[in-house]
Amino acid sequence: MQIRYKYLAKSRLIKMVTLYHLSSKFALVTHYLQLKDSKVNIPYANKAQDILNLWYEFVHGEKEQRPNDFFPKLM
Fold first, then answer.
1. What's the whole-model pTM score?
2. Packing angle between helix 2-35 and helix 45-59, nearest 10 degrees?
3. Which residue intervals of 36-60 are DSSP H helices?
4. Is 48 exposed, middle or buried (0-12, 13-18, 19+ CB in 10 A)?
């Protein structure tokens, strides 16, 4: 029973970290899109543009399998 509990706890932690990672990427892209036409210096502009390009390629079928680009490696 203890092993199963550890497995479920680890699985839940991975899901929580993955969701957190995705939400931080969404926040980065959202802020970039809001500020990209302003004269504000955006230090994370390249990272946000990379995420947008990956999403664009995925949506248009140019990149069919690249889950590691969207999800972090956790162990």
1. 0.52
2. 110
3. 45-59
4. buried
Angstrom distance (rounded) from CA 8 to CA 2: 10
Q: Which amino acid is at 42?
A: I
- Give the SS3 label for residue 68: helix
**pLDDT at position 47:** 87
Would you state the torsion angle of the CA atoms of residues 30, 54, 69, 26, taken in this order, to the nearest 10 degrees?
10
Q: Give, for 7, the enclosing helix (H) or strand (E).
A: helix 2-35
Domain positions in the chain are 2-70
Residues 7-34 pLDDT 10s: 555 566 555 555 557 778 888 888 888 8
Nearest to 52 by CA among 74, 70, 71, 72: 70
